[in-house]
Amino acid sequence: xxxxKHSGTFGDLIYALPIVKHLGGGxxxxxxxxxxxxxxxxxxxxxxxxxxxxxxxKDFDFMQSFxxxxxxxKKFDVMRSDTEITHNLDxxxxxxxxxxxxxxDIYSHTFNIFDTDTxxxxxxxxxxxxxxxxxxxxxxxxxxxxxxWQPRQLSPQWKEWQKTGLMDQAIFVGMEEEYQAFKxxxxxxxxxxxxxxxxxxxxxxxxxxxxxxxxxxxxxxAIGLGVNxxxxxxxxxxxxxxxxxxxxxxxxxxxGG
Length: 257
Description:
Low-confidence stretches: none
Strand content: 5-15%
Mean pLDDT: 91
Number of helices: 10
Order of helices and strands: EHEHHEEHHHEHEHHEHEE
Oligomer: single chain
Structural class: alpha/beta
């Protein structure tokens, strides 16, 4: 049986799952407490402050029910020194330097998948499922603007949505401090929807009519689940070099500063 390992972060791991599914699935192991080392070894500096110290045992617990619910994940566990691995998903990291393309393409190249039809299928197919969806009555829009995006200038698109009264149809997911920062930045008064696990988060995203957010765990779930997404991309890089860049214009639209 295939055995895969990944060290995180959340989004990096979620975007690896199309390749796991394509290769037939198998056991999946999380290599804990590697993020600080990865930053130093691969990128020559400490990781993003919001990632430092992450992918720990608490993060494993947060992910567990969602990961084991994916039909191609036969087991989800913590990697140990004697765990046998057939596919090291962290091998994508050298190719990721400079963000040379879409995540799924980078993982494809890592495992020598160059066929155009196969790559197009991987780019445009959903790869995540939930067994049921959650909704909040009268609130079909789910928003997340993560902490690392808060210092960035707010896109004019948020003002345009405010004119339409979108805030009256939306809820916010993520961390409490992100919610408070979003309200302060936008002036929007919308409810905070607490999610205790990745499964809780995936279910409320899956039940939405539209997800709005920047590159984050929540965005990667939304894209993987195939919901309609509006992604607030980085405006200091070309779109095709943004971490959230995808290829499905029917499902993913972009806005920036």
